[in-house]
Design a protein that fits this description.
Oligomer: single chain
Helix content: under 10%
Radius of gyration: 21 Å
Distance between the termini: 38 Å
Structural class: mainly beta
CATH topology: Neuraminidase
CATH architecture: 6 Propeller
Largest sheet: 6 strands, antiparallel
CATH class: Mainly Beta
Number of strands: 34
Amino acid sequence: MIKIKKPNKHKKGSFKQPNNYRYNSLDIEGQVNTPNNRNINQKKGPGKQPNDCRCNRLDIERQVNTPDNGSTQSETSLAYFENFILYGFNDLATNNFSGFAFSNNLGQTWTDGGSIPQNPGGFNSGDPVIAVDRNGIFYYGQVSGELIGGRQEGVISVSTGRFNANGTITMGLPQVVGRGQNPAGSNVGDQDKEWIAVGPDKNNPGNEALYVAWRDLTNNNSIRFSKYGTGQNLTQLIASKDIVNNGVLNSGAFIVIDSIGNIYVFYERVDNFFTIGQPNRSIRMAKSIDGGNTFIDLPVSLPFAAAATTTLPCNRPSIGVDNARQIRMNEFPHASIGPDGTLYVVWNKGTVVGNTTFINVFLAYSQDGGNNWNEVNITNNISFPFFPSVTANCKGAHIQYNRFNDPNNVGGIGNGTFGLFMKTFSLNTGLSQERVISNPFSQVPITNTSRCYMGDYNQIIAGPGSCLLHSWGDNRNIVNGQPNPDVFFRLTSL
């Protein structure tokens, strides 16, 4: 059960939490004192000493995909190993939506790798998620269809690859890692919104495993889970199974693994998808402490409203600058684990006060494995933000988000263009000022012909030392007189 109490009156920049405080919503920029506070700069494990909390690299920004004739690239994810980065994105330029690019010099230069190969009779449908293991094997998770039993079945698949001596990578054919409860009725896209992660295997000490979570549209929009042994040829350890099935819409699964192999699957529960302006959504977490054999379901947030202002013209929650240019909105969580074991999760949250809708990015953190949560308003009623992501390293939790530019402080959609921004939250120093990551004053393209689609997520990850690696899509480039969705990378030195 989550309890909320208003904080005691406090001076700006200081907040002291009572011992019986179970859940707290903060709107402060300054120092936050919490029970059992631990030094977030303390790293554990080989090569993770405090003195490696440096980046020692210059900031760089690059376009990742090869410019084309105006097709959409979106929904970005990335992972790195040594100086190698694999970057995934939706690529609608071909009839194979799973695009990728790679860098062999930590983002200085990029090669557009084209599309992930398809199996005979198969189809790659995008929604990429990238992970990497300790041996440098990369994993590209995706929504796909594979020929099983004579029909094309909607599944979740993973392609693996390893960088060669010449600094290039060859991705393998997709391997099925997720099937629905009703395989005979599962079409392409019915197994959807997957996330993958690599981490310690609690059931096989000393080994790593590949963990997979996703939504099954054929089975009450349940959240499903599977587990595989790592390597270029995957071996099933736990077959696909439901871990959340409550009869309502569950989506946006995001999976993280801690240093001892505990599994945390964050997701959004939606009790009424098409109703906005009412608190009918929440963030929850399915947790396993036995390697994925069993899960318990825990609340992370209290109910909140859709991060949206309309359901028109695309018949789904969205925000936008006019009827032709809308961005469909979900409140999918992104999560990370700090060096000290603190769990962090971010999402977009809507609140309605009178006739005004406020949309903000919220961060929740837990220092006891997800039993109790503290909440921080990251954006605090500035212009509308969207697509938040979080990573944690020796300098805190770093929250990346898009938001509309608002030079005249009118709020909402501001001047109708958007950029990429970041704030950092530290248990020691609180919430930082906003930092511009990339602001090309990107326009929103015409989206009402594609159900308001401009993507659903971007990603930030921790790089070497204190470096941060950012992936996102925007529409800065103009092709045939229209904004062209492309994908980009930035290395930020802290």
